[in-house]
TrEMBL record:
SMART domains, A to Z: Cpn10
InterPro entries cross-referenced by the UniProt entry: Chaperonin_GroES, Chaperonin_GroES_sf, Chaprnonin_Cpn10_CS, Cpn20, GroES-like_sf
Pfam families: Cpn10 (PF00166)
The name this protein goes by in its record: Uncharacterized protein
Keywords: Chaperone
Organism: Sphagnum jensenii
Record PROSITE patterns: CHAPERONINS_CPN10
């Protein structure tokens, strides 16, 4: 059985393994296969095996109702940033070391907002992305329980100032976007050129100043705002 290797415009590489069939039907299905922004995989293919450091994630369903039960129009629905890992590649080589993918099938993950290539496979929406696009592990729906991966850091954002120095109340649109927060959790760090993990210099509880538009923001169910960003987006530790 031969595998068809496909590379999308975004650079994602993956393999499709067709089900057993006659040579004519197999050839026909391959000839009509096209790559689009959201790729639909024909039922001919029964397995999708990511290559290298890529991961296949089944996307969680879009929330169609607000917390108050109001039906949301499609334009107001929140784009999912989480799902379940269903397949992983064989990993990558750094230096002379082979590094396996750090997450396993069945893990519940959160990923960067605009990462990966969308694929409709077996009638369900999936995302093919690189391991580095994963933000963290999250088994429930409480974002403060997120376990960051690699060099990612979870920060509880400080509330924006509601008044000017002169005591004037600020409207929501006039408030400055916060760039200060408290570190809630950190990832284990990234790998150096020697293939060894390099721990981060930032710890839980640190008050930090970070880049204004960095990372991915999440509002928890209690209304508290969090941001997950890379360690390189931290500008300073405050004390």
């Amino acid at each position: 059985m031969n595998s068809s290797f496909v590379q999308s415009a975004g650079g994602s590489m993956y393999a499709f393994i067709p089900a057993a069939s006659s040579s004519s039907s197999s050839s026909s299905s391959r000839s009509c296969f096209t790559i689009r922004a959201a790729t639909t995989v024909a039922p001919t293919y029964t397995t999708l095996k990511p290559l290298g450091d890529r991961i296949l994630v089944k996307i969680q369903s879009v929330e169609e109702k607000s917390a108050g039960g109001i039906l949301l129009p499609s334009t107001a629905q929140t784009k999912p940033q989480g799902g379940e890992v269903v397949a992983v590649g064989d990993g990558r080589t750094v230096g002379d070391k082979k590094l396996e993918i750090s997450v396993k099938s069945g893990a519940k993950v959160v990923y960067s907002k605009f990462a990966g290539t969308e694929v409709e496979f077996n009638g369900e929406n999936h995302l093919l992305l690189k391991e580095d696009d994963l933000v963290g592990l999250l088994s429930g729906d409480d974002i403060k329980e997120l376990q960051p991966l690699n060099d990612r850091i979870l920060i509880q954002v400080s509330e924006a100032e509601t008044k000017t120095a002169g005591g004037i109340l600020l409207t929501e649109s006039a408030k400055e976007k916060p760039v200060i927060g408290t570190v809630i959790a950190t990832g284990p760090g990234t790998y150096g050129e020697d293939g060894e993990r390099k721990p981060l210099d930032i710890s839980s509880g640190n008050q930090v100043l970070y880049s204004k538009y960095a990372g991915n923001e999440f509002k928890n169910k209690d209304g508290v705002l969090y941001v997950v960003l890379r360690a390189s987006d931290i500008l300073a530790i405050l004390a």
